[in-house]
Amino acid sequence: MFIPKDPFNIIIGGVGGQGNVLASQILGRVLVAGGRVVTIGETYGASQRGGPVMSHLRVSAGDPFSPLIPEGQCDLLVSLEPVEALRILGRYGNPAVQVLTNVRTVQPLDVLSGDASYPELDTVLAALGSLSRRLWRINATEIALEMGDPILANMVILGALAHLEVLPFTRRAFQGALEGVLPDSRMEENLDAFDRGARAVEELV
Amino acid sequence: MNIISRDEPGRVDLLMGNEAVARGALEAGVSVCAAYPGNPSSEIVGVLARVAGEMGLHVEWSVNEKVALEVAAAASLAGLRGLCTMKQNGLNVAADFLFNLNLSGCKGGLVLLVADDPGALSSSNEEDSRAFARIGGLPLLELSTFQEAKEMTRWAFELSESLSLPVLVRSVTRVSHARGNVTLGELPRRETLPRFDPERPFVSLPVVPNHEALREKLQRAREIFEASAFNFYRGPERPELLLATSGSGWLYCLEALVNLGVEDRVGILKLGTTWPLPEAVVLENLRRADRILFVEEVDPFLEDNVKALFADHCEELGLKRFLGKADGTMPAVGELDPDLVMRVLQDLMEIPYEARPADYAAKATQETADLVPARSLGFCAGCPHRASFWSVHNALALDGRDGFLLGDIGCYSLAMGPTGFGTMKTLHAMGSGTGLACGFGQLHRFGLEQPVLAVCGDSTFYHAVMPALANARYNGADFLLLLLDNSATAMTGFQPHPGTGRTAAGGEAPVLALEALCEALGARVEVADPFDVKETTGTILRLLRDREGVKVLILRRECALVRSRRQGKLFRVEVDPEKCLGDRCGCNRLCTRVFRCPGLVWDRENQRTRIDEAICTGCGVCADICPESAIRKEVA
């Protein structure tokens, strides 16, 4: 499958602990197995503890690019948390960006404490819609909870992403990318999460 | 099958920078790898530990960086290849040994990889470890790309062996904690048998002749570097501007030139071997342009060294304009990114550049400012530290004498912030809370009335607190040490330590019990469960009032992340909507506003607290702090 831009810049965003790094690693391995040159910059460390996290994926046919996407250069945003999607567009968005977001919110400590407020989900989705060319939503966390483990939301959203056909990303490639990263005993559960994600994604804009 | 041990030369895979370093060490035939965990370096020895069995390595988490370097150096002195890795702060700990090892020299390839953290993304400082190469007279290599991380690491062992000198390899967060394509090479068969030659002692004495020999080795290193393919120029023959860069700066420079469309006007001198400077390579490239911009993190290391070299050759080179940190063209602190490099180049080359349409940028900025709440760091849901600091905070308030808590490095550093109720008041090096307490604990004689408390974690205890505790007992300091035992080096990825009963490679190890060690060091020891808030608060209060001597209170609860990987929730926790009075209660929303566990959320619609079941780990502590007993817990 042809990728229309080089480098094609993907951001996977969310909150520390949502399995963001693993999702970016799996997607990156899919693209490398497909012959692409990929660079991924990951933010974690202290931000593992409940802060915003982002992985930047640069996908190219030729040279490696830097692990940080320049301002305004995101082509595809996948976010495990809705308000984090908006935070990321604030710096990296542009009129052509495509966005896939989980709709389950993770309340920041600043909201719990009353120092900040969390906007209504519809308001967030409307803002995301007005700042993107295409917008898809999925309740990845709810699907993962139905499966018994909220951490599977990252695999659910990868399934949704594959279904959109904006990247050369198949179920088979997903399975190949899991090998060597996750133990075989976890394979079936992760494939199930992927399939459920592919079925549940809906387009908003 | 682990990615880094695949015996498939030519295979291309996506490797983290740290994995690429580990693979490079394997391709060099490394035998011994030792480290103390510290981000952004932790995964190197982490992944090597996972393949230790199949690859026949000895891999260990040492108790601190100095011991780790000594362990790796022993392999070298016996003729094997040794790797030691650490973060920038760790090099300060290891430096005492390193700055004698440079004089004694070594035998088998010995590589010390230091991962710096420009911008202090997961650190207590952003020191630039390259200065150590200069101080210690050690060859320095800087990693720029993922393939290079592997190739340079492998080459560093050969270089070390040919010079009989440890080689310093410097990584940074954006290489170590990033991923990219790496083509795998051959995995060699190790054939060397270790032997220490009693006829060839390794001592730093006599110092002056050995120092002279070190200088000669560095001169040889310089000659080797002049021919290294890790140093190269890319760009037009006579650029209007020359960028001199190393490390992560290389990819930022490349990207900036492409985005601004100035590849035919600006050239890049990329240096991979930065100490000693490959002088001929630098001088040859300085001739290309009259303006030179340095792009490097964090200190002006390249900048200062190139300028010093220029000073010796200015008559032949003519006038040059150097731009960088000294003249303020580049920021003197913090990390770089492609936007920053682009902004500087836009100004210097007078090129307009619009990252995105101005109306979109304005709208995106406005929507974010209006709608997106801050997201502060805090302890995880169910973290025992939150419960511990809740009790410390309350005990200090009940005691009422302005007692204060001295801390250091670990997850518990977050106790400076709101989820630790601002309890921790100092933060410096590993173990420094206890060291400071040794000093504060002497000030009663001058009239200090405040109780003195220190805090450390279990891994930090083995790393640097034990000497401080011995000192406290010996010199008669009075304080209370809170030893937060969560049974893991949690901040850096749950590595085992001497208290866990497991080795790096997963084998069994004897448990060095904290109670026994503290008692042996002369402290009075008690143990409490931080999840029992009432008893813990009472115990702290009692120990605070007892002012004589060194007391250690071990607060023991496994890290919530480690526990939840192994088993489910301890309790099923629910909020009874009939009992929760919300804002009518008078508790000021104690559970969400004050206790701030992310597993508890405020339900705006129903004006009640509720549990977020995707986040709650079922510790049950909130049930014990709710004044209306509106939070129920049942054993899960």
- Please, what is the CATH homologous superfamily of chain A? Pyruvate-ferredoxin oxidoreductase, PFOR, domain III
CATH class of the largest domain in chain B: Alpha Beta
Estimate the helix proportion of chain B, in percent: 25-40%
- Helicity level of chain A, as a percent range? 25-40%
Structural class of chain A: alpha/beta
Computed over alpha carbons, the radius of gyration of chain A is 16 Å
Number of domains of chain B: 4
Number of strands of chain A: 7
Give average pLDDT of chain A, whole number.
Answer: 93
General form of chain A:
globular
Pick out the low-confidence regions of chain A.
none
Strand order of the largest sheet of chain B: 3-2-4-5-7-6-12
The H-and-E topology of chain A, N to C, reads as EHEEEHEHHEHHHHE
Instruction: Fill in the CATH topology of the largest domain in chain B.
Output: Rossmann fold
Folded structure, characterized:
The complex is a heterodimer of chains A (205) and B (636). Chain A has helices spanning 20-33, 82-92, 109-112, 121-130, 140-146, 153-164, 171-178, 187-200, and strands at 8-15, 37-42, 52-60, 76-79, 98-102, 134-138, 202-203. Chain A has 205 residues and is of the alpha/beta class. Chain A has a single domain (8-197), classed as Pyruvate-ferredoxin oxidoreductase, PFOR, domain III (Pyruvate-ferredoxin Oxidoreductase, domain 3, 3-Layer(aba) Sandwich), CATH 3.40.920.10. Chain A has a 7-stranded mixed beta sheet, with helices on both faces. Chain A is globular, with a radius of gyration of 16 Å. Chain A starts with 7 loop residues before the first strand and ends with a strand. In chain A, 62% of the residues are buried. Chain B folds into 4 domains: 3-189 and 203-226, Rossmann fold; 232-349, Rossmann fold (3-Layer(aba) Sandwich), CATH 3.40.50.920; 384-565, Rossmann fold (3-Layer(aba) Sandwich); 568-635, Alpha-Beta Plaits. A 7-stranded mixed beta sheet of chain B has the order 3-2-4-5-7-6-12, sandwiched between helices. In chain B, strands 16-15-17-18-20-19 form a 6-stranded parallel beta sheet, sandwiched between helices. A 5-stranded mixed beta sheet of chain B has the order 9-11-10-13-14, sandwiched between helices. In chain B, helix 1 (17-27) runs parallel beside helix 7 and helix 16 (432-440) packs parallel to helix 17 (458-475). The radius of gyration of chain B is 28 Å and the shape is globular. Chains A and B meet through helix 1, strand 2, helix 2, helix 3 and helix 4 of A and strand 1, helix 8, strand 8, helix 10 and helix 13 of B. Strand 2 of chain A pairs antiparallel with strand 8 of chain B.
